[in-house]
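Dear Dr. L.,

I hope this message finds you well. Following up on our conversation about the binding site, I have prepared a predicted three-dimensional model of the protein together with zinc ion. For your records, I am including the exact sequence and ligand specification that went into the calculation, followed by the structure tokens. Please feel free to forward this to your student if that is useful.
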Amino acid sequence: MQPFRRVRSGSSRLAEYHFEVSHAPGETVLCPGKLSAGASRTRCDLARGHEAGDAHALAPTYSSVGVASDPLWKRNPLLTTNGGLNVVFYEVPGGAIAESLDKPSISEFFDWISGYLGPFPYGDELRFAGAPTHWLGFEHPANIVLYEKLQTVKGAYANPTMHVVMHETTHQWAGNRATLASVGDFVWKEATAEYLSYVFERDHRPAGEAEGHPGLLGPNFAIGHAPSAPDRRTAPRGARLLHRCVRPGPWCSTFSSKP
Ligand SMILES: [Zn+2]
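The resulting structure of the complex is given below.
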């Protein structure tokens, strides 16, 4: 796989995507954009709205093709922001990310980041999910997947869960709406997400939270966060994360949820 070549190829363009995923009856499948879940077929749309109040939005080629599923996921509401965004959480039984979150602070962050960057670009729902991922978290339009034991991580940040939630949420704008024309542009995506997370920690979180860790921003971080190969570590338990569209196009592809 050559992710960097793909980044150089038209990645700054915003595109329209439609996904239709066939899956086992009752299985939860997450795909980007506006999600419509059926018993054995889930549809997701990333497109310009055609009606007043329809907030679908286009998205960049490098982050829009991501499908994840886990037969054990349970969906639970996390909070509704003052702006009307419904934030929901998917975890397997025993998952403890959502219960570890400081909901009032998360809600305050959503209001704060929307004040800087504008209303949430992808409709009225943002989905978080816990999964056995390599990264602490990564984003696709309206979907954010977090490492399923994020609340146990030590050393990366003073409060890794809060920080990563803020970082990945910021990518809904910085990265998913402000796009990258080259690998060198990753700084605008990653530095913006890190910087704004630190600012919120400094101004709205307990004293010292922003300063109490070295942070992850190093010379390799931006490159290391480039679109990655499918995470094979997710396969054994059924969560599958697909980063490539096998036939790029407005109807993109149909992914089977079967292993
Ligand atoms: Zn990032």
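In brief: Residues 167, 171, 190, 193, 225 surround zinc ion (CB under 6 Å).

With kind regards,
A. P.
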